[in-house]
Structure formats: C-alpha cells, structure tokens
Design goal:
Blueprint: H1 6-11, E1 25-26, E2 28-31, E3 38-47, E4 50-58, E5 62-68, H2 69-74, E6 84-85, E7 92-93, H3 94-97
Antiparallel strand pairs: 1-7, 2-3, 2-6, 3-4, 4-5
C-alpha cells in the first residue's frame, strides 16, 4: 500500500501552516492493524529524501508531534503487519476525529 500518494501530498498543508488554527484539519490517517497505534496527519513537508508529518498520535500515550514517512514504513505490529493508510478517511477537523 502506498502511504503517501501524490494527491495527499498536494493537499497536505506544509509544516507550521496550521499552527494557529484552533481546530486544524486532519488530512490523512495511518494505523497499525495489529498494534493499536494511529497517526492523524494535519501537516507535512519534504525533508531530503523523506517526508515529515505533524499531527496527533495515539499509541502508548496520545500526543501531538512529528513523525516521518520512513518511520511509518519501518513500523510493524505484533503480527508483523505494516502501517496502513485508512482509505475511507476523509479530511475533517481534529475535533471531529477526537469524538
């Protein structure tokens, strides 16, 4: 599965562009089908050969922070399954995602 398509890359705001937004838009959702982790990306920018996202991460703890495409590609859950992109997720404000 392609985690970052050209379409997502084109619509994803650059890093820092939603910094002052009260309710930033989540543009893409990644998850581990076998480990209970979810990444909600609100922004992203190229970084050399990699791509860095900013967003909300739900894992051991829930927190805002950065994560990279290369990290997502390396992660495997308990059964060895890779991170997937939620193909049915549609961009919406983070307040709606948290409900």
């Amino acid at each position: 599965m392609q985690l970052l398509t050209k379409e997502i890359r084109a619509r994803l705001p650059s890093l820092g562009s939603q910094k002052i937004a009260e309710d930033p838009i989540v543009h893409v959702k990644f998850f581990t089908p076998d480990a209970g982790w979810t990444w909600y990306a609100t922004e992203g920018s190229p970084d050399g050969d990699d791509f860095v996202f900013f967003g909300y991460v739900q894992g051991i703890e829930a927190e805002w922070g950065t994560f990279s495409l290369s990290e997502l590609r390396r992660i495997r859950g308990a059964l060895g399954l890779p991170v997937e992109r939620d193909l049915h997720f549609r961009p919406r404000p983070v307040s709606q995602v948290m409900q």
